[in-house]
Design a protein that fits this description.
- The chain has six helices and no strands.
- With 127 residues, the chain is mainly alpha-helical.
Length: 127
């Protein structure tokens, strides 16, 4: 699961800053944002709860919330059921009202998490 989470961290980063890769991902961005939000929720709420006293539990908490906060404002809720539209719409409003620079801080934290996850995965697979 760590590989999949790391890939989606990278995809969110590519979609969040101007670059040539992000342009190619534009047609898939809605699906990427939803999957990344769900993976972030799994990372922060389930994995962290199981491993809270370990390094990877804390890393999952930080990475999960960073994934959720960076992907949620970009999710289109037009075709969603009313309960999801109301709840996530409220969360989107709260995230969008955060101070200037908060999203950039979340992207920086997400980049750090992606680097740590990526480094560890490479190290584990080459050992």
């Amino acid at each position: 699961m760590g590989i999949v989470v790391t890939v989606f961290m990278a995809l969110i980063l590519f979609l969040s800053v101007p670059n040539p890769v992000g342009k190619r991902l534009k047609k898939y961005q809605d699906k990427i944002f939803v999957i990344t939000f769900l993976m972030g929720a799994w990372n922060a709420l389930w994995y962290d709860a199981q491993h809270f006293d370990e390094f990877w539990g804390i890393a999952a908490l930080i990475a999960g919330f960073s994934m959720m906060i960076t992907s949620l404002p970009n999710i289109s809720l037009d075709k969603s059921p009313s309960l999801i539209k109301h709840t996530l719409g409220w969360l989107q409003t709260k995230i969008n009202s955060l101070p200037q620079g908060f999203q950039e801080l979340m992207l920086l934290m997400l980049f750090g998490c992606a680097c740590i996850y990526g480094y560890t995965l490479i190290k584990l697979n080459l050992a």
